Amino acid sequence: MDSLSIIPFKTFVKDVKKLKKRYKNILNDIEKFKKIIKDNPTVGISLGHGVYKVRVKNSNKN
What we know:
This protein is an alpha+beta fold. Helix content is 39%, strand content 11%. It has one domain. A two-stranded antiparallel sheet has the order 1-2. The mean pLDDT is 88.
């Protein structure tokens, strides 16, 4: 199996920093996502060339 790399865009990191103020659990949600994606790297919608689009559930909203 190929090694899995999760590379966030700079804009993503910047946006998460801003969102932490409103959504206190966002970092936990991202960590949960990392575990899920490592167990099943093909989860989500394939965009081709080994790239997938995945939505992460916001645990602050129920």
